[in-house]
Amino acid sequence: MADDNKHAEIDASLVRQLAEILNETDLTEVEVERGELRIRVAREVTVNAAPVQYAAAPAPAAAPAAAVAAPAAMPSDPATIVARAGEEVKSPMVGTAYLQPSPEAAPFVQPGDKVKKGQTLLIVEAMKTMNPIQAPRDGVVAEILVGDAQPVEYGEALVLLEA
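^ thats the sequence. predicted structure below, dont judge the formating
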């Protein structure tokens, strides 16, 4: 355990240094790997303001193109948001989304599945810790908005639930 504490101190210093690099540059993400230790620091780009600015006018024309062009690359695209009906389950952290508990296992859920409040929908790995993302209420999985092993941002919609 003492060895773990030593790594935790090193991690904090390294994270601070990486955060400074992000603040000093136009980068949105930096990742460093030292042996088994991997640290990824990302900052949220002000995407929240963008949907408000252009979601209203171009949504009907842009929706089909956005859905075909890159649904996994930019699931928070304003045209896609306008087309969705239901409650978005959002990522509470930056990490990597996994749709099943292991590569050989079946997915936690699939579109059309009925889920109960607290049921695991997927997991988000952050700093080698697997974090279950649970259903906030009973419902039906309308759509899974991310791909397996896809990097996700804080606040990014992961799953769409219907009543």
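The longest strand covers residues 120-126.
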